[in-house]
Write a structure and sequence with these properties.
The chain is mostly helical. Helices cover 52% and strands 10% of the residues. Helix 3 packs across helix 11, helix 4 packs antiparallel against helix 5 and helix 4 packs parallel to helix 11.
């Protein structure tokens, strides 16, 4: 009897992950900031290319370190992955016309998936590899880039955004407890001014604001509420610049530095795409439903076995008592 009771308890506990996901809600108190961010992306949209350029930073582009003949400015540089992929989903609730045009542009170039960024839209990705940047198309006036995670080297970086991507990967695989545990590692990196991850501590000493947006978005997908959510959300929007975009970096004191850019602004807006959040969560719930069916069958089998087993034990005990 005790053995059967233990099995039934274990089976009941195994159902908990399917019911434990709670809704983490985005705040609705940032309408003005959201409107300005949408305006920032819309004003950087190129109607000829149907893409949004990277930023208005006036300096030399960092890609000069990778490509010796790279001659384009930031406002001439258009990223298929990640900037415009993120922007297509970020603008969906606000500017569906731009979303449709960006998606058609992404399809037109027929570049293989990035192998990473698609997971923000609920698409499964392979093992996360290191990134390689590609020039897709260029002219004297513009260059179209794609960052694809197709290096032969597996990415083990202890970067906050990569941990978020891995958390989403686990969640879509139905590994809900593991996904929550993984994301809590990122939450623990919050120091009140940014995320104290590997790049902040070792690489450059700057906070990357797109990682804050990625944390908030991932928590919404996972349904994981946490105490500092509102504080981080408020800090993220504190990175908004006069042009409506969000600064990509902040200093050790948590103050914005440098120019706004498309990636950070798009990821901040992605948090408020409720339709996308619910669509992705429904995929996992459907996956969980198949497990529920298995659990129900197992539970029925064990219950029937217990019902058949216990009376026989009682009859046998009665016979021994009479003897």
């Amino acid at each position: 009897m005790r053995r059967i009771a233990a099995i039934l308890c274990l089976l009941a506990v195994s159902l908990f992950p399917l019911a434990a996901v709670r809704e983490a809600r985005a705040s609705s108190s940032f309408e003005i900031q959201i409107t300005r961010a949408v305006g920032y992306l819309a004003s950087r949209f190129n109607p000829v290319l149907d893409l949004i350029y990277e930023s208005d930073d006036p300096g030399d582009h960092w890609l000069r370190d990778e490509f010796h003949d790279f001659k384009w400015r930031y406002r001439q540089t258009y990223w298929l992955y990640s900037d415009n992929l993120f922007a297509a989903y970020a603008l969906e609730p606000f500017r569906p016309d731009l979303t449709n045009r960006i998606r058609r542009a992404l399809q037109r170039y027929q570049i293989p998936p990035s192998g990473l960024f698609e997971i923000v839209a609920g698409e499964m990705i392979p093992t996360i590899m290191n990134a390689i940047d590609y020039i897709v198309e260029s002219s004297p006036d513009f260059v179209i880039m794609a960052r694809r995670h197709d290096s032969p080297v597996i990415s083990y970086g202890l970067y906050a955004d990569l941990i978020c991507y891995r958390s989403l990967q686990m969640f879509l695989q139905g590994r809900i407890h593991e996904a929550h545990r993984s994301l809590r590692q990122v939450i623990s990196l919050w120091n009140g001014k940014g995320l104290d991850d590997w790049s902040y501590r070792v690489v450059d000493g700057f906070h990357s604001n797109q990682k804050l947006a990625m944390l908030l978005y991932t928590s919404r997908i996972l349904g994981l509420s946490f105490a500092s959510y509102t504080e981080i959300e408020r800090h993220l929007w504190g990175m908004q610049q006069a042009d409506g975009g969000l600064a990509s970096l902040s200093n050790r004191e948590g103050r914005p530095m440098g120019s706004s850019n498309t990636e950070t602004t798009a990821l901040a807006l992605l948090i408020y795409n409720d339709g996308l959040v619910h669509t992705i969560r429904s995929k996992v719930q459907s996956l969980g439903g198949s497990f529920v069916g298995l659990y129900v069958v197992s539970f029925t089998f064990i219950s029937a076995t217990a019902a058949a087993f216990l009376p026989s034990r009682k009859r046998r005990a009665s016979r021994f008592a009479k003897n």
